[in-house]
């Protein structure tokens, strides 16, 4: 999957929820049935607009971030073209 609008929807949802990168990473562990979540680094790549920003992510990571933010996944991510 790829992040929408250079990660703006994720950053906006984080701001609305009052979450930092660190806290969002923690919340992904809380919603992950396996209890692993995703790292702060991975969250940082999702929200960064600079050189460390990335556009494509694994479906699992996108799902966990959307669930941790309480948002539908399609508001934050789109299907990567194949």
Entry keywords:
82 residues; mainly alpha; globular; 2 strands; two-stranded antiparallel ribbon
What would you say this structure looks like, in words?
There is one protein chain. The protein has a two-stranded antiparallel sheet with strand order 1-2. α2 packs across α3 and α2 crosses α4 (59-69). The mean pLDDT is 94. It is mainly alpha-helical and 82 residues long. It is built from five helices and two strands. It is 54% helix and 5% strand.
Task: Summarize the topology.
Layout: E1 2-3, H1 8-17, H2 21-31, H3 40-47, H4 59-69, H5 73-76, E2 77-78
Antiparallel strand pairs: 1-2
Short recap of the structure:
With 82 residues, the chain is mostly helical. It contains five helices and two strands.
Shape: globular
Order of helices and strands: EHHHHHE
| End-to-end separation | 10 Å
- Class by SSE composition: mainly alpha
Show unreliable segments: none
Our Rg estimate from Cα atoms comes to 11 Å
Helicity, as a percent range: 40-55%
Q: Averaged pLDDT, please?
A: 94
Number of strands: 2
Give the strand order of the largest sheet, numbering strands 1, 2, ... along the chain.
1-2
How would you name the oligomeric state of the polypeptide chains in this document? single chain
Biggest beta-sheet profile: 2 strands, antiparallel
